[in-house]
Amino acid sequence: MEYKSTDEKLQTVKSSPDIVSHLVPNTEDCRKCENKSCQYVCPAGVYEWTDWDNRMLVKFENCLECGACRVACDKQSLVWKYPKSGYGITYKQG
Fold it and tell me: pTM for the whole thing?
């Protein structure tokens, strides 16, 4: 079996993002969170804390739908749903 790098594997992913986020963090809980774990566990870099407006920026269109953020959230305050039918990630062999 041939080894493929993560970048090579990610090139086999097709994404059709919706215009509405399927990831909704609780802003107040994010402000109180010391770890902001979602920023570090997300392989797609979806979450970014913005100091200038004291909120979590969610780049949901990059989401790989792995669910790591939901598991890592210390406060369990992330509403995480699969995108509506026809949107989101399509994985293919490659």
Answer: 0.81
Q: Quick: pLDDT tens for 20-33.
A: 999 999 999 999 99
Q: Domains in the chain, start-ordered, CATH in brackets?
A: 6-84+87-91 (3.30.70.20)
- DSSP codes of every residue in 7-32: HHHHTTEEEE--SS-SEEE-HHHHHH
